[in-house]
Amino acid sequence: MKGFLFDMDGTMVDNMMIHHRAWQRKLSELGLEMTIEEVKEKIHGVNNEILERLFGDRFTHADRQRISGEKEAAYREIFLPQLKLIDGLQAFLDQAKSANIPMAIGTAAPEENAQFLIDNLALAPYFKGIFHAGSVSKGKPDPEIFDKAAASIDLEAKDCLVFEDSVTGAEAAYRAGAKAIIVTTTHAKEEFAHFPNILKFVDNYHGLTPEEFLSA
């Protein structure tokens, strides 16, 4: 491994349940009732794709953009008072930066949410490339975002280690030819049984050192 690629939601911050609740509330307003388990199973990827998948052509592109913006604004307002990195990640990033390991972010989050975390958690110095939903034409599990993130640090995805929390993210890493570490904030270990590219499952970043993965 020569570089690290990070997903953001559920991987760098433990925020997926806030997203799930925000989606559940917004979908209810749109007349679609889902249990939280259904939301966790079905709501993943880029917002426009989610709305098109659920509602077909019921909404125009402009409608989907508005609905997405409303949901994300509510998410940021709810999350700000409790915003923090997952335990142990700050130390891991500091060690990786000191070791000159190049890092980039590839998240399915919209640009506003990515920038919200970068700004409020002072993450910009750690990452050469930051890619979000607006950076790609196809969301995860398509590997496009990890290919672009790897290119931003002058590497191929197969030479990077991906940190992810979701099944779709693990598949994107697999399709990009990359090994992965799964942070189990959102999904159980058993849900990833069919992915041969996963090196390790962790609850947080305590005890992890960048050097242990460089020869993986």
Task: Describe the structure concisely for a colleague.
The protein is of the alpha/beta class and 216 residues long. The protein contains eight helices and six strands; from the N terminus they run βαααααβαβαβαββ.
Based on CA atoms alone, the radius of gyration comes out at 17 Å
The tally of beta strands, per DSSP, is 6
CATH topology of the largest domain: Rossmann fold
Average pLDDT value? 94
| Secondary-structure content class | alpha/beta
The biggest beta sheet is recorded as:
6 strands, parallel
Q: Can you tell me the residue ranges where pLDDT is under 50 for at least 5 consecutive residues?
A: none
Distance between the termini: 6 Å
Q: Just name the CATH architecture of the largest domain.
A: 3-Layer(aba) Sandwich
CATH homologous superfamily assignment of the largest domain: HAD superfamily/HAD-like
Strand content: 5-15%
Assembly state of the chains shown: single chain
